[in-house]
Amino acid sequence: MEPVLEICGLAKSFTLHNQGGITLPVLDGVDLAIYPGECVALNGRSGSGKSTLLRTLQGNYRVGSGHVWVRRSDGSRIDLATASPRQVIELRRSTIGYVSQFLHVVPRVPAIEIVAEPVRARGADPATARARAAALLTRLNVPERLWPLAPATFSGGEQQRVNIARGFAVEYPILLLDEPTASLDGENRAAVIGLIDEALGHGTAIVGIFHDAEVRDRVAGRLYTMTEARAAA
Ligand SMILES: Nc1ncnc2c1ncn2[C@@H]1O[C@H](COP(=O)(O)OP(=O)(O)OP(=O)(O)O)[C@@H](O)[C@H]1O
């Protein structure tokens, strides 16, 4: 079986332009291959670069050096290091799902539409997309009275569940999860674990940050421990 995601010699540093142009090395020599149907948990102390790696895999941060090969459903591969912005947008629609820690709400867009949007973007008709969204919101215990409302006023846990529903609305080949259970109670944690299990069963490859050790031990088949980037000489 071929990996859906192959990270080779990835390095990434940030240049702080407003602080004298200091360069902060964060990732160095990351090598990791991820296969369909497996869940890899990023492990490491606070500040070791877990979120930076996840955002780089989503194409949100530019690759410093090295390669991040993403395999598309037609078998072709794209390297995020050289992908155009247009290709990155297309990969996010078709191949790479991402559940961030916080929902970035668009003003006035109802929760159900936020969840249905990725389904529609893949060509489903509005009724099918809304039905999928409704099923996920129900599963994640988001009360139906909230569905037509914009989530700006929702509680932290409600916003997170809308975000999770959106991330799982489509069966992406690759799903990136940034602390998907951080502000959830036991019942909703169990619902998220159920969704993760199903996605893995469908062959989705998951890379996640799970500070909740119980959830991590339950879903992750493998840990990838971040090592400190070599300090700049
Ligand atoms: N946009 C940025 N600009 C400058 N430095 C950044 C940026 N994002 C992250 N960093 C720095 O990179 C390092 C790694 O941060 P990152 O958030 O990836 O760590 P983490 O392992 O996810 O931490 P935590 O477990 O605390 O969330 C930190 O020292 C952080 O200050």
Automatic annotation (TrEMBL):
Q: Which SMART domains match?
A: AAA (SM00382)
Recorded hits in Gene3D superfamilies, A to Z, give:
P-loop containing nucleotide triphosphate hydrolases
Q: Signal peptide position in this chain?
A: none
Per UniProt, the keywords (alphabetical) are: ATP-binding, Lyase, Nucleotide-binding
InterPro entries documented for this protein = AAA+_ATPase, ABC_transporter-like_ATP-bd, ABC_transporter-like_CS, ABC_transpr_LolD-like, CP_lyase_PhnL, P-loop_NTPase
Q: Which GO terms describe its cellular component?
A: plasma membrane
GO MF terms held by the record: ATP binding; ATP hydrolysis activity; lyase activity; transmembrane transporter activity
Q: Which residues form the ABC transporter domain?
A: 5-233
**Would you tell me the protein name for this molecule?**
Phosphonate C-P lyase system protein PhnL
Supply the source organism for this entry: Aliidongia dinghuensis
